[in-house]
Amino acid sequence: MARLTLLLACLALAPGASEACSCSPLGTPEEALAASDRVFLGAATTVELRCDHPNTKPFIRKPGQGVEIVCTSPSGEEHSFPIKLATFMVSENFKGTGSVETLQTELYGAMCGVEFVAGEEYVVYAKRQDGVLTASLCSRTGVATDKESGLSVLRDGG
Predict the structure, then answer these.
(1) Is residue 69 assigned to a domain?
(2) How many domains does the structure of the chain reveal?
(3) 19 vs 154, which has greater pLDDT?
(4) Where in the sequence is the signal peptide annotated (predicted)?
(5) Are strands 38-50 and 121-129 parallel, antiparallel or unpaired?
(6) Is the pLDDT of residue 13 over 80?
(7) Residue 134, C-beta contacts closer than 8 angstroms, at least 6 positions apart
């Protein structure tokens, strides 16, 4: 019975195909700069998963329709989805200061999480939520070579 309850809770919380990430239009790079707490150009140095629930760790399970990562306790009890933590070596600051930044994003793109890859260079538009820098697909955050990142506008004085 407990497994059924957990399964129903996970299904209710997990994004389905019809509940994919939905964002408002991006706006201009200048608007994104003004709306963000921290904006920088930097290379992702590490990308890791973290579970917020005590005594849990990321676990890969393979349900009927693909691979899914969940946070589980040593007894196998599932608690939530992990979050991604990405650390960046900052090469240019557009809003805020610092040479290293760590931020979090949701695990899956369907949950508006950014697919950061270690070694890639990104323009990051981050917001501070509960003292933690966060990035999402609903910002202009993206690979630096992508025109949508607004890097050329930011360099011209954004």
Answers:
(1) no
(2) 1
(3) 154
(4) 1-20
(5) antiparallel
(6) no
(7) 103, 104, 105, 126, 127, 128
